């Protein structure tokens, strides 16, 4: 999108804030997850569902989005989440995306054990 900054240049300031959890959208923006290194003291809500489309991600797609973050943040500091709210999606699409999110997280959790 024209005029939209790349990434999140303000993350160092967020690291210094009193907020304990930071939500980062990574699915739609295909964000380079190396930026998570700038938040070493925070729990990250990692957005893994692209809500700009009604296409339901597969659990494997969600797992791949989670795996992109793991080189930069420990699993204990991750909370898996959609990129943002689901209120504009049809109920069946929202349910399908949330199910894929849960199933994708289960795939990664099993790999980490």
Would you give an account of this structure?
With 113 residues, the chain is α/β, with parallel strands linked by helices. It has one domain (11-112). Helix content is 34%, strand content 12%. The protein contains three helices and three strands, in the order αββαβα. The chain has helices at 11-15, 59-69, 91-112, and strands spanning 21-25, 43-47, 78-81. It has a three-stranded parallel beta sheet with strand order 1-2-3. Helix 2 (59-69) links the parallel strand 2 (43-47) and strand 3.
Search tags:
34% helix, 3 strands, 113 residues, three-stranded parallel β-sheet, alpha/beta
Helix content: 25-40%
Structural class: alpha/beta
Strand content: 5-15%
Biggest beta sheet summary? 3 strands, parallel
Query: How do the helices and strands follow one another from N- to C-terminus?
Result: HEEHEH
Trace the largest sheet across and list its strands: 1-2-3
């Amino acid at each position: 999108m024209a005029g939209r900054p790349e990434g999140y240049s303000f993350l160092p300031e967020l690291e210094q804030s009193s907020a304990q959890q930071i939500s980062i959208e990574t699915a739609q923006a295909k964000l380079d997850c190396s930026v998570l290194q700038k938040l070493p003291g925070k729990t990250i809500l990692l957005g893994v569902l692209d809500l700009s489309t009604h296409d339901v991600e597969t659990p494997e797609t969600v797992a791949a989005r989670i795996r992109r973050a793991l080189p930069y943040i420990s699993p204990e500091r991750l909370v898996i989440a959609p990129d943002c709210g689901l209120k504009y999606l049809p109920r069946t699409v929202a349910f399908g995306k949330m199910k894929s999110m849960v199933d994708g997280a289960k795939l990664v959790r099993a790999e980490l054990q």
